[in-house]
Amino acid sequence: MQILATLFIDDISMRETSNSLTRIDLTGVQFTTSVSDDFPLVIAPHLVVLIHSEAGGTGSGVLEVTYQLNDVEIARNVQPLQIQPSQFAYRLIRAELELNEPCTVYANCRIDTGNTITIPYTVEASA
Fold first, then answer.
1. CA–CA distance, 114 with 127 (Å, rounded to integer)
2. What topology does CATH give the domain 2-125?
3. Across the strands, what pairs with 41?
4. pLDDT digit string (tens) for 20-43?
5. Where are the domains of the chain?
6. Pairing of strands 46-52, 103-111
7. Are 48 and 12 in contact (CB under 8 A)?
């Protein structure tokens, strides 16, 4: 299995085309957010992970997402994956992140002991 993409989003929806093909629609793809609440605060951004299960593979694995701030793990999500070989799937991860000040949090995503994909998420105070 391999991760094809990881993105912070507002929403995800599935639809079928007239040819019976599946489409995934992502809205509000973002790498930065602005918050009007005072720090410290808790945010819960949505992270979508798009996954492909290779032909000839087992179709199973474990997805691990860790969130790091200043090299310290502040949240972790681990979940089993069962995806039919040659198929695609997505997983939506929503972690509650406790933040004391504006910062950049890094989501580190991997399947089993594979390569890690890191995506930054910057939280700014609104003016």
1. 41
2. Immunoglobulin-like (2.60.40)
3. 99
4. 888 999 999 999 999 999 999 999
5. 2-125
6. unpaired
7. yes
DSSP labels, 71-123: TEEEEEEEEEEE--TT-EEEEEEE--EEESSSEEEEEEEEETTS--EEEEEEE
The Cα 13–Cα 126 span in angstroms is 29
Q: Which two tokens stand for residue 112?
A: 């089993």
The alpha carbons of the chain give a radius of gyration, in whole angstroms, of: 16
| 66-109 residue pLDDT tens | 999 999 999 999 999 999 999 999 999 999 999 999 999 999 99
The structure tokens listed for 49 are 């992970």
Task: Look at the alpha carbons of 107, 113, 114, 115 in this order and tell me if their dihedral is positive or negative.
Answer: positive
